[in-house]
């Protein structure tokens, strides 16, 4: 019964809610916004959509979409220069984790100065950030509501996790319609990322009753709606529920932090240009098997939330059903099953294990973990 | 599938969390705070506690606790004068709904000017409010997280409901330890107020998936922990869960609004110095019986959340169990069962019915309601 803290942005959720972006920026006092996005989002037309809406609201704007999957320190630096050159006074992020995390990192630099490396870790941001409005288009990262930004340190080839209440955006806009342009592959990997957020937050040693309600609801929604969402681009009901699952999982992990899956996935993402969600999807069942010992009762609840019948089963038996369920889900939606499918080999595993062990997300993993454990988990997932 | 909005303050929750009040004010840039409370809270020692903590943090302060149950417009006016005379720059509320609603109303006047009557209704506040930190000590009102303030119009003898996102405090502190000094009577009435918030928010026509998770969890917590909490002043587990229930019900109704119970209760509270929670407790089962027609499936879920076995029952049968459950709960904890026990008579019912019909909370009631219905409901509850 420790003291729990919970923060979240104002949320605007629903079909067509992206059309509130201009008005939202005005409400925060913005006059000229930097719109941060990526080429994928631009090609799907959502960036233009946002630009049109900002124009209609009478906002001036500049754009920056020169970013890659797993955004890099030097990309953040470029974005900052863009913000300064155009004398912007607010930031909009449009996209998945890459665009939104970059938008947050730019916001840090424009009022706090220095290099993005200075802010790695917890609570390193001192000056208030400019107004931030984030539009989530992937139902995956949860970054639109979280106090996290993850940026690659390109020299040291590792992901830096930046955690601060200041990184919670002012307004998060979640519009399920933006999910209709995602490929089945991206729907699957981002959906499994949502599940990973929800499960890691739920079993985190920093979980609280406030994060549990969000995490549990997100698990239930993913179990019910991820398969239909992968199956059809136009099944709006499933898009709606997956967007909600992503939002709730984001609220849960933002406040309960994550665990070994994310620590290990960050170490991979710092070196290889892989989809974060796919890497998580491969690691999740292995880490769950490792963590099972620490939280059997919670695993039993996860099985129940996934719709498994657990009556007359012990927590141990029921908990194992949760792991089986998630393996099957991942198979059903065609997610990769092994790291080797993505081109990883045994090379570099010991360095990555060291990096993973030092990741901020490892602190809240429910089972104590040593370097040998991390190495073994990577090997199991190869 | 409309567009849903959800706002909440930063929350600090847990035993001893009241000791973060000074630091919280400093974080918001406060130098001199007006601490708004009431005599009950002062006599229980919590006000002194807060003052000590503010002193320790190096804050200057003034106090204002000249308020009554169902706080009045002229009390708000006095508080405003106190704030200005002492050149304060932030507001702390310590107490239940009365203290916190007064603190919010003072905050409105000091930056927006005019009279508190000018702000009745939705979205009438234009200027930003000073920093607000609220400490909830009753596990009842939920005002520490809500966008509501309810103030009595003393001339017209009615409660004015003021609704605005600006009324969401910056930081809400919820410390279950402050519940240990409450009488069983106050524990019962505030606990039934929590249940009323949760149920009205859940069946509200403005309910969303984001408010539903909070409302449902709150109903479950009240069903499990209100009886033990009334039974023992020192049962800390029950205090903890009731404080959480209050917080979650507050988040639910702040964003989904309420219904006929609150509309009718406000009309009573504007005329008679009665405990808001007790009036709600009497009205709740009558309004539930009236509303049943509109949302039988939700009523069935309420029964399930209360721990009733609903397997093999129809929604209609299960929903009726919810109403029976709540009547029994109210009896078990010794809450008043009739308005006449509190001194009400048939006199004034038709005027009150008109006032109730015009209350902002009536708009979201799930069943259409006419003046004759309101009159009949009041009579049934007499």
UniProtKB/TrEMBL annotation, chains A, B:
Top-level lineage group: Bacteria
CDD domains named among the record's database cross-references: Fe-ADH-like
InterPro entries given in the database record: ADH_Fe/GldA, ADH_Fe_C, Alcohol_dehydrogenase_Fe
Keyword presence, Transmembrane helix: no
Domain Alcohol dehydrogenase iron-type/glycerol dehydrogenase GldA: 10-176
GO MF assignments: alcohol dehydrogenase (NAD+) activity; metal ion binding
Segments passing through the bilayer: none
Name assigned to this protein: Alcohol dehydrogenase
């Amino acid at each position: 019964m420790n003291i729990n803290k919970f923060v979240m942005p104002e949320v605007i959720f629903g079909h067509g809610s992206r059309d509130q972006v201009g008005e939202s920026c005005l409400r925060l006092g913005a006059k000229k916004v930097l719109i941060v996005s990526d080429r994928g989002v631009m090609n799907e037309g959502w960036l233009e959509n946002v630009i049109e809406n900002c124009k209609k609201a009478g906002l001036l704007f500049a754009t920056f979409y020169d970013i890659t999957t797993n955004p890099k320190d030097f990309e953040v630096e470029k974005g900052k220069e863009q913000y300064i050159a155009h004398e912007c006074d607010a930031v909009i992020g449009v996209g998945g984790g890459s665009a939104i995390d970059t938008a947050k990192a730019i916001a840090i630099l424009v009022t706090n100065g220095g290099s993005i490396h200075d802010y790695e870790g917890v609570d390193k941001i001192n000056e208030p950030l400019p107004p931030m409005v984030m539009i989530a288009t992937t139902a995956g990262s949860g970054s639109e509501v979280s106090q996290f930004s993850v940026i690659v340190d390109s020299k040291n080839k590792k992901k830096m996790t930046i955690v601060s209440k200041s990184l919670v955006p002012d307004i998060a806009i979640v519009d399920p319609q933006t999910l209709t342009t995602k490929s089945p592959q991206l729907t699957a990997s981002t959906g499994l990322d949502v599940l990973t957020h929800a499960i890691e937050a739920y079993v985190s040693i920093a979980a609280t009753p406030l994060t549990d309600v969000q995490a549990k609801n997100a698990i239930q929604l993913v179990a019910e709606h991820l398969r239909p969402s992968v199956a059809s681009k136009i099944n709006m009901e499933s898009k709606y529920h997956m967007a909600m699952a992503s939002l709730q999982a984001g609220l849960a992990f933002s406040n309960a932090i994550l665990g070994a899956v994310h620590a290990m996935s960050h170490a991979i993402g710092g070196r290889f240009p892989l989809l974060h969600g796919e890497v998580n999807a491969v690691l999740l069942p292995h880490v769950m098997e490792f963590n099972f010992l620490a939280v059997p009762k919670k695993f039993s609840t996860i099985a129940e939330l996934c719709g498994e019948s657990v009556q007359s089963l012990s927590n141990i038996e029921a908990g194992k059903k949760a792991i089986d369920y998630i393996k099957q889900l991942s198979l059903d939606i065609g997610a990769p099953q092994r790291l080797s499918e993505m081109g990883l080999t045994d090379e570099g595993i010991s360095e990555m294990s060291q990096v993973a062990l030092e990741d901020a997300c490892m602190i809240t993993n429910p089972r104590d973990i040593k370097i040998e454990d991390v190495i073994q988990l990577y090997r199991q997932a190869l």
